[in-house]
Write a structure and sequence with these properties.
Helix content: 40-55%
Number of domains: 1
Number of strands: 7
Distance between the termini: 35 Å
CATH superfamily: Spore Coat Polysaccharide Biosynthesis Protein SpsA, Chain A
CATH class: Alpha Beta
Radius of gyration: 16 Å
Strand order of the largest sheet: 3-2-1-4-6-5-7
């Protein structure tokens, strides 16, 4: 089955080539250059990635949405989302892909040892109680593209990866959990702690409201 690895990237020139090289044996790396002002796009292409560029920075979720659209365009059947900063260990990717090949699995979610933020811990508590998923916000997720076609509206939300996964979980789609090791991050986070917490809490509020309407 044809697999694509979607990697949203904003000014990750220092790590992107290494990340692309670490994943390209598992699928087609699609790097979304989200209006980078450095050499992220060029270095990704030189490392073997398909690069799609946003002329202006549009944010992580818009980059993910662009990556899903490109994966669909090239006919990928499976998609794995991955981070550009080198923190996620790529050794988990083949485990994700193998799980997706099982007929009863349409979603795979990576599980880290610990959440990065307090707001993530709150979201994870909700997801564990509601769905049995202990790490809803891990950047490593795997999807069957057939489900993407059925839930395309999730790619138009402010939290693409989470919204898409929640839509599938609410449909009782079979899912698998895959442990993922975390490497030390080189450099500063591209998304401030305060802004990140606000975004996550908004996504949690949206999830709770959707549950209340059901």
């Amino acid at each position: 089955m044809k697999a694509a690895i979607i990697i949203p990237a904003y000014n990750e020139a220092g790590s992107i080539a290494r990340v692309v090289e670490s994943v390209r044996s598992y699928g087609i790396p699609i790097v979304v250059d989200d209006g980078c002002s450095d050499e992220t796009g060029r270095r990704a292409a030189e490392a073997g990635a398909t690069v799609v560029r946003h002329e202006a920075n549009r944010g992580y979720d818009a980059a993910l949405a662009t990556g899903f659209a490109e994966a669909e365009r090239i006919g990928a059947e499976l998609v794995v989302t991955f981070d550009a900063d080198g923190q996620l260990d790529s050794s988990s990717i083949p485990v994700v892909i193998d799980a997706l090949k099982r007929p009863n699995v349409g979603l795979v979610i990576g599980v880290r040892d610990a959440a990065a933020r307090f707001s993530e811990s709150l979201f994870n508590l909700y997801a564990k109680l509601r769905f049995g998923v202990p790490d809803m916000l891990c950047g490593l997720k795997g999807f069957r593209m057939g489900w993407y076609a059925s839930h395309r509206e999730s790619a138009e939300t402010a939290s693409v990866n989470t919204a898409f996964a929640l839509a599938l979980l609410r449909q009782n789609i079979g899912f698998a959990l895959v442990p993922v090791a975390i490497n030390p991050r080189a450099g500063d986070s591209r998304f401030g702690t305060w802004r990140g917490n606000v975004k996550i809490l908004r996504a949690l509020a949206s999830a709770l409201m959707q549950d209340a309407r059901r």
